[in-house]
Amino acid sequence: MKVIYHDVRRMPSEIEKACYASYITKEELLGQADIVTIHIPYSSATHHLIGKQELEQMKPTAILINASRGGVVDDSALIEAFVRELLLEQDSMSSRMNPN
Question: Which helix (H) or strand (E) holds 84?
Fold first, then answer.
């Protein structure tokens, strides 16, 4: 399993090696990760850290786990992303059922 991470502070290389982890940018992580877990304290600096732009960077099949307090993820943007994906899925299914 490939472990990638992003944090405000990079871990020492000995810890990265021991954990088989690679440090990458937040944008790279969002675009590459199959599972994104968030473990940060809630503050004005982390309010809506994950919003529409970040959700759009994620793979459509990615799993987002927010182990932080509410407010770190923009709930409205998350609902919008779910609805958009559901509509795309329905459109794709309809196209397969009606090939004309």
Answer: helix 75-97
